[in-house]
Amino acid sequence: MDQSNNKALEVDDKFVEHAPDAYPGLSPEDAEFMRGYEGKTGKKVVKKAGFFPGAVFIVSSWYPCHELQQRLAIFYTASAFSGALSGLLAFGIARLDGARGIAGWRWIFLIEGAVTVAAGLVMPLLIIDTPERAKWLSDDEKRYVDLRLRLSGVRSNTEEGDKFSWKLLFKTMVDWKVLLGIILAWANSVPNAAFKFTMPQIIKQLGFSTAQSQLLTMPPYVCGGIAAWLSGRFSDHLSWRMPFIVGPMSVLLVALAVLFNYSKNVADNVPAMYVGVVLAQIGIYPLLPGISAWTGNNLAPSWKRSIGLAWLLAAGNLGSLIGTNIFLDRESPQYPTGYGVSLGIICLGASCALLMEFCLWKSNKARAQRSEAEIRQKYSQEELDAMGERSPLYKYTL
Question: What is the pTM of this model?
Fold first, then answer.
């Protein structure tokens, strides 16, 4: 992932972003023809690893710090609506089971893979990776966008502050803000992965058929997407990230508590259980846009932001390995392990968010004690740019 984002700074970002977009679209189709777990897993790792961090980096390259989260939320909301659509597609495509001698699950891979390939081929023509390459912007408009990005700290004022080095790579990977961000990402990826794979089963336990369960997964995803956009909108408006991360985590805690409490007697608590499922998605989907925006806002210059976002999302997604293995069939319908681990990691994430807020606030307060004139008298612009977010003129986003 780090390599994908690093190369995105050197070559045309949209091709780094969407070449893997079209190519991994072949994976579902390959699943129809391929046999063997190792081959399928290897192809997924090679072809899909750079997609999401590359997309986040491109979006972050266009917008000032306090206009970023709602844009990331719009992008991430596509994941929520794809989850809603997948339930509907699974309901419809299942009827093709046996057609032309192909199993229903293979039809799903073939159809969704073909759509992904087509989209991946078209997207490079539609996605503009940087303002400088936007043919529809005039020179004055490009200059205006560039100045906005420089004033907000997204871009350096000199080339000195925006160079890659292996030292920068390793320093970024152990940066305390990135490490805390990874824990925050785990608070999203663990319950998110768990619900993505178990929601249909949980809903089915409410007494609905498999087909009805697939359809009933749609409203939670739609509500989650709307919550993500609203959270991003208000976070950008208030220029404040932390409440819009801790808030959804609190909603998610309530949702999991409701689901665990009423799971002992599902049949008599169908409305409460379904509301719990909806609340869980409302809590999950605002998290990753907020965490990505908060971490990206506090990393500078663009090389460090690129590396930091890639490492955040790569290490953060390791939580999915946990999330997909904690809702154990033998523990149905209460799933004490699944709910217990999810509740614990969410509490840890909320604590880390509060700790990060305090540390950033304390740093901003210390920097505010020095005047800009005093700082500029001591440091040149090149030296300030080389410091990145450690510059005494840099103000952290809370």
Answer: 0.81
Closest by CA position to 358, among listed 299, 398, 389, 393: 398
- Hey, is 164 helix, strand or coil? coil
More confident residue, 5 or 53: 53
pLDDT in tens, 208-261: 776 677 777 788 888 998 999 999 999 999 999 999 999 999 999 999 999 888
- Boundaries of every domain in the chain: 2-390
Give CA–CA dist 187/177, Å, rounded: 16
Burial per residue of 373-385, b for 16 or more beta-carbon CB atoms within 10 angstroms, e otherwise: eeeeeebeeeebb
CB 17 within 8 A of CB 55: yes
Question: C-alpha angle with apex 253: 247 to 256, nearest 5 degrees?
Answer: 145
User: 35-72: buried (b, 16+ CB within 10 Å) or exposed (e) per residue?
Assistant: eeeeeeeebeeebebbbbbbbbbbbbbbbbbbbbbbbb
**What would the pLDDT profile of 133-191 be if each residue is shown by its tens digit?**
888 889 999 999 999 988 887 877 666 556 788 989 999 999 999 999 999 999 999 98
* Distance (Å, whole) CA 296 – CA 54: 13
Sort 394 into a burial class: Cβ within 10 Å, 0-12 / 13-18 / 19+.
Answer: middle
Distance CA 239, CA 232 (A): 10
Instruction: Fill in the DSSP letter of residue 134.
Output: -
**Which residue type is seen at 113?**
G
Architecture of domain 2-390: Up-down Bundle (1.20)
